[in-house]
Amino acid sequence: MTLPLFGAAVVPSILILWFFLARDRHPEPRLVLLSTFGYGVLATLPAGLLELGLQAASEPLALSAPSQSLLFAFFGAALCEEALKFWIVYGYCRRHASFDEPMDGIIYGVTASLGFATLENVLYVASNGMGVAVARALLAVPGHACWGALMGYYVGQAQFGSGDRRRALVLALALPIALHGLYDFPIMLLGAAPDDPGLALPWLWIPLAVLIGGWRLALAQLGYLRALQLPRLPLVAPVLDDAGDGMALPVAVPSRAAAMIQLGLGGLLAWWGGLLSLAVVAGLVVDPTEGEERVHLLLGTAVIGLLPLALGLWLFRRGLVATSPRRRKDS
Fold first, then answer.
1. What digits encode the pLDDT tens for the residues 256-279?
2. Rounded (10°) CA dihedral 31, 32, 34, 40
């Protein structure tokens, strides 16, 4: 696998995880986050074995393409993968001392899901190339993050909420499975009947609708839990005049739409600029150039690669700061 392809597979998970971590007022211990991410990566192995077992068991049944796609989407992919993620969040993260408020459910749910999505993405991109990398960066990786956020929210509600604990745990597992299965079904149907694309065509709107609806719900839940963390503050900042007396000037607060545009545009620019830069670095390693040609190549990289990368990171960070000022716990 080339360096640019590896970057294309990994960077989307990093940016999405950065987005969620930046919205947590009380940052989680890095070691626990890394362990959770690592467990998510390791979960791809049993998930793959379970899916292969289901595929082998279903072969004698000679299922039709729609039936096969339904089986693999809801039981082979959604049930196996989300159950393993649930085991990580509920069985490991929830028992840790750092799991001490509802927001932690979302943070650990997203971390575990993106660990899983990262290795899965690396394997898919290594086998299928850059076209799949772009599609999965826009669809599959955000999907995994969304299912993890929803799962973590309800695990947090089961742990700290005042409602029905059993109902919250059922939703923590059932909702991600349902959305994941609905997302996968039309895509798997298209793959199961490549010679008859009209069979899947009427269903291809479902993955996008599931992603949009799931993200809207996840962001609403994230905003609600973040509001519980943040004290109510006036939108003014203290400024000293020439005499040293306090004044209060209004703070410019970017609109939510502007902040989300900064996040989206910044993420795309950083991803694209990083890929171009990695491609040039990989090319220089494989086939190094000398003299004036090398200088021109490096200058071109700075313009078409490093500048979009720097601008993208700057915009992404501005979007994070505008939407989620971070504060640590008082010591």
1. 667 667 777 766 667 666 666 665
2. 160
Which residue reads 């009427």 in tokens?
202
d(CA 97, CA 93): 9
Residue 153: pLDDT over 90 = yes
AA letter at 190: L
The residues, ordered by sequence, that sit 6+ positions from 330 with a Cβ below 8 Å of its Cβ are none
> 229: Cβ–Cβ under 8 A, 6 or more apart, which residues?
24, 25, 26, 101, 103
For the whole model, what pTM was predicted?
0.77
Rounded CA gap, 161 and 92, in Å? 19
Is 20:106 a contact under the CB 8 Å cutoff?
yes
Residue with tokens 């008082």: 330
**CA-to-CA distance for 122 and 13, rounded, in angstroms?**
11
Token pair 């007022």 in the structure block, residue: 25
